[in-house]
Amino acid sequence: MSQVLATRNYGLPSVVGSLDSYISAVHRIPVLSLDEEQSLARRFRDDADLDAAKQLVMSHLRFVVHVARGYNGYGLQLSDLIQEGNIGLMKAVKRFDPDQGVRLVSFAVHWIRAEMHEFILRNWRIVKVATTKAQRKLFFNLRKSKKRLGWMNAEEVRVVAQDLGVPEATVREMESRLSGRDVGFEAPADADDDDKPAPAAFLVDEGADPYDNLAEEDASKNQMGALSSALGNLDARSRDIIQRRWLAEDNKATLQDLADEYGVSAERIRQIEANAMKKMRVAIAA
Predict the structure, then answer these.
(1) DSSP per residue over the chain, as a string?
(2) Using one digit for the tens of pLDDT, what is the confidence trace for 66-82?
(3) What CA–CA distance (Å, rounded) separates 19 from 79?
(4) Where is this region: Sigma-70 factor domain-2 (predicted)?
(5) Which fold has domain 2-128?
(6) pTM of the entire structure?
(7) Nearest 5°: phi and psi at 15?
(8) What would the mean pLDDT of 24-31 be, rounded to a whole number?
(9) Which of 54-58, 135-139, 256-260 has the highest mean pLDDT?
(10) pLDDT tens readout for residues 92-102
């Protein structure tokens, strides 16, 4: 059952191609009510109705996009994260029990995040260790060529270099990367005074002049005051759009998110946003 669920072609929107088109497409898929979700989940659980499973998956694709955006800082493609999250969503649908009293979205977030985490762990270290095509080739070949843990001796280095057609120095450099470990740039929050200083402690503080710091702080306060005043002059809808699109700490709203909420097109939200930004620039410059 799980293999069928994971591999069957549902006709889901494809992440391959335009990511904006995919995101727009999944946001047009209606959200299920509680009764609809319960009915579909029971059809899939009791009758193995794959069409019901498809509807459950389709209605939650927008949530996968939302979760994937939270991992933008890892340097990986958003489309790849979405694809991995969709796999987690399908696994969640297979295991979901509608009689447990929770919504699918609450249950699925664990499986979605788990697949994304696994993908990041598989790719993050590789990105850091091997940054060119040649290095990536050596990385994978060296992993297969090493017969034991620990450092390679001179003869092993010579054999690997000969087999792969690279200089021995290149093999030693890659081995040092594979044998190394990541070091935090800043000290952990629970570090003691006796711990070895973190790399950040050895950097020169270019902003240590108190006069410069005071001037920057005063300028920042003035800018924040002007921004707050400009926001206050906007109508409620325009202010909400600007705050959620540009000033939210995380999970910034998309044009499509706001369009769905206000019952207008994404283009109309963009126009309101542009007009609001123009009014704010005039107010701040005054």
Answers:
(1) -HHHHHHS---PPPSSS-HHHHHHHHHTSPPPPHHHHHHHHHHHHHH--HHHHHHHHHTTHHHHHHHHHTTGGGS--HHHHHHHHHHHHHHHHHH--GGGS--HHHHHHHHHHHHHHHHHHHHHHHHHH--SHHHHHHHHHHHHH--SSS---HHHHHHHHHHHT--HHHHHHHHHHHH-----SS--TT--TTSPPPGGGGS--TT--HHHHHHHHHHHHHHHHHHHHHHHTS-HHHHHHHIIIII-SSSPPPHHHHHHHHTS-HHHHHHHHHHHHHHHHHHHH-
(2) 999 988 766 678 888 99
(3) 7
(4) 56-125
(5) Four Helix Bundle (Hemerythrin (Met), subunit A) (1.20.120)
(6) 0.44
(7) -75, -20
(8) 92
(9) 54-58
(10) 999 999 998 88
- What percent of the chain shows pLDDT beyond 70? 64
pLDDT band at 143 (very low <50, low <70, confident <90, very high): low
What residues contact 37, with CB distance under 8 A and at least 6 apart? 56, 59, 98, 103, 104
Taking all residues of the chain, what is their mean pLDDT, rounded to a whole number?
76
Q: What is the mean pLDDT of residues 22-48?
A: 93
Q: Specify the pLDDT at position 3.
A: 39
What dihedral angle (degrees, nearest 10) is formed by the CA atoms of 77, 79, 81, 82? 160
Distance CA 269, CA 262 (A): 9
Burial 60-96 (b: 16+ CB within 10 A, else e): bbbbbbbbbbebeeeebeebebbbbbbbbbbbbbbeb
Hey, where are the domains in the chain?
Answer: 2-128, 130-179, 210-285
Distances in whole angstroms, Cα of residue 262 to Cα of each of 85, 88, 240: 28, 31, 11
